[in-house]
């Protein structure tokens, strides 16, 4: 079924199908000859404008030499997209390095991203040492899992440095910057990275100050993705899953919360000064042999 606007799940599915076609070194026309579909139909499938039943996903993937064991995740995404509930659960979240990584796809295709993070430095801004330290103390994760997690973080950060990058606005609560993940040395490098990134023209980092008291509390972390030709998308992260919200009535509460956060947060210039000062505090703590920065 064709649509004027491509739903997020169908866009992600289409992008994954396109990857498999390219890996098989097939053009749209060549795939069309083998499936009996026109090049236009294949193009609209890959852009997410035409939804596919699961049997047609197999039909598409057959000429690409992708069979059922390798297609299971795409089939699940197809079923999710077909339900069109306005929200869906991603089984990967930020914690798993997976070929079908929903967050990376939508993050890299958005024209603008706004993120609020109350407890951690946002993943797109983390140093490798911070990402590793944050997970080293988790007894239920192997060294291999922790290493994969850090690789996901670094892979995601490539989107910040594209030739024509999107617009990124980060609202980071001060408490996230004062939790000494990995100790003062790790935090010193992490906060310095924030100072440097905040100088890029397409990145704004604003600190939500603890001094605002209860007015600085806005609930859990969330992200909003804006697209040039598609409806906005919200993302809520948890330990092992991520929830995507696409229905307008589901995204709206987060969009309406942004002005309140912006009203409390330090402006970009004052935030950069705060970050520079905090980096100096962590540096002094390293020199003094202390891991406490208050």
TrEMBL record:
CDD domains: HTH_XRE. Pfam families: DUF5753, HTH_31. One of its GO terms (molecular function) is DNA binding. Signal peptide: none annotated. It comes from the Bacteria. Gene3D superfamilies: lambda repressor-like DNA-binding domains. This is Helix-turn-helix protein. Residues 17-57 form the HTH cro/C1-type domain.
């Amino acid at each position: 079924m064709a649509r004027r606007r491509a739903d997020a799940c169908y866009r992600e599915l289409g992008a994954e199908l396109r990857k498999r076609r390219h890996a098989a070194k097939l053009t749209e026309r060549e795939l069309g000859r083998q499936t009996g579909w026109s090049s236009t139909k294949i193009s609209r499938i890959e852009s997410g404008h035409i939804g596919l039943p699961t049997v047609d996903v197999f039909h598409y993937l057959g000429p690409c030499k992708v069979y059922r064991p390798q297609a299971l995740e795409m089939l699940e995404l197809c079923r999710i997209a077909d339900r069109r509930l306005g929200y869906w659960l991603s089984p990967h979240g930020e914690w798993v390095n997976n070929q079908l990584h929903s967050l990376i796809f939508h993050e890299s295709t958005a024209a603008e991203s706004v993120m609020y993070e109350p407890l951690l430095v946002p993943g797109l801004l983390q140093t490798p040492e911070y990402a590793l330290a944050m997970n080293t103390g988790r007894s239920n994760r192997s060294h291999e899992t922790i290493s994969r997690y850090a690789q996901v973080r670094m892979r995601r950060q490539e989107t910040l440095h594209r030739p024509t990058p999107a617009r990124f606005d980060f609202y980071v609560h001060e408490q996230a910057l004062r939790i000494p993940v990995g100790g003062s040395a790790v935090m010193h490098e992490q906060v310095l990275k924030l100072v440097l990134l905040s100088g890029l023209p397409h990145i704004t980092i604003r600190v939500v100050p603890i001094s605002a008291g209860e007015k600085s509390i806005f609930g859990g972390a969330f992200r909003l993705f804006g697209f040039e030709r598609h409806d906005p998308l919200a993302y809520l992260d948890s330990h092992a899953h991520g929830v995507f919200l696409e229905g307008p009535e589901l995204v709206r509460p987060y969009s309406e919360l942004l002005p309140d956060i912006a009203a409390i947060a330090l402006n970009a210039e004052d935030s950069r000064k705060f970050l520079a000062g905090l980096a100096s505090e962590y540096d002094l703590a390293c020199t003094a042999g202390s891991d406490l920065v208050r």
